[in-house]
Amino acid sequence: MRAWLTLILAFLFAATPALALQQRRPSPISHNQPLIAITHVTLVDGTGTPARRDQNIVIRDGRIAAVGPAARTPVPAGAAIIDGTGKTLLPGFVFVHEHMFYPVGGGHFSPMLGSFPPLYLAGGVTTARTGGSVAPHGDLSLRDAIAAGTAIGPDLDVTGPYIEAAGLGIMELHAAADPAAVERLVNYWADTGVTSFKAYMMLDRPRLRRAIETAHRRGLRITGHLCAVTYREAAELGIDNLEHGFAAMTDFVEGKQPDVCPLQQTRDLLANVDPDSPRVRALIAYLVAQRVAITSTLVVFEDMTRGRPRLGEAERALLNESATRSYDAIHRVIDGPPGVGDPPESFAKAQRLERMFVEAGGLLVAGTDPTGAGGAIPGFASIRQIQLLVEAGFSFEQAVQIGSLNGARYLRREREIGSVETGKRADLILVDGDPVRDPAALGRIVTVFKAGVGYDRQALLTSARGLIGYR
Question: How far apart are CA 141 and CA 169, in angstroms?
Answer without folding.
Answer: 27
